[in-house]
């Protein structure tokens, strides 16, 4: 899953990015509100982590512009402003959650998981395919009731394919879901992760569509 982090504090931004990358998320990090606004109009993200005190375009201005355009991706505000009035203002502008600095990375990761579950809430948060059950709440996978150990990248790749079951996804689309702008991506990285998933889950689950990409067929 791809997340946009907008934070002008270099130390905090790098810490959040590294922490979420360890959870398996692809994180793009920008320090400028205007740049972030342009990125949100040209790229696809599942979540926005937004500081309020940004250069050129404030976090609140960016949030209002996002909602005026009709973009519905979840937004989690990260800010040192802890007054009730500030929280109310952020939530009224269209934020989905509000976390006051300083915060614990484990709490941030939990809030990220909660927000990313929301679009699937009506259908149930778990992704089920045959005897496979992938649970975004715990970042776990089970098969016939038995846990299956996956790396963070393997989990995110499987989540992407399962959440779009029946759709063929190109290597470029999968790379975009797995890696941020600043990460070096080996030319065969997606193929390697798919090879590992096939070893753990069988060769029939992920189908290669020659010249197009990969797909998990609907169960």
UniProtKB/TrEMBL annotation:
UniProt xrefs under SUPFAM superfamilies: CheY-like
First-listed, main subcellular location of the protein, grouped into a coarse class: cytoplasm
Known DNA-binding region: 124-218
Subcellular location: Cytoplasm
Keyword Transcription regulation part of the UniProt annotation: yes
Ranges where the OmpR/PhoB-type domain occurs: 124-218
UniProt-listed Pfam families: Response_reg (PF00072), Trans_reg_C (PF00486)
Domain of life: Bacteria
Modified residues (4-aspartylphosphate): 51
Record key words, sorted: Cytoplasm, DNA-binding, Phosphoprotein, Transcription, Transcription regulation, Two-component regulatory system
Domain Response regulatory: 2-116
Keyword check for Transcription: yes
PROSITE patterns: OMPR_PHOB, RESPONSE_REGULATORY
InterPro entries xrefs: CheY-like_superfamily (IPR011006), OmpR/PhoB-type_DNA-bd (IPR001867), Sig_transdc_resp-reg_receiver (IPR001789), WalR-like (IPR039420), WH-like_DNA-bd_sf (IPR036388)
PANTHER family from the UniProt entry: REGULATOR OF RPOS (PTHR48111), TRANSCRIPTIONAL REGULATORY PROTEIN QSEB (PTHR48111:SF35)
Protein name: Response regulator
Naturally occurring in which organism (per UniProt): Thermithiobacillus plumbiphilus
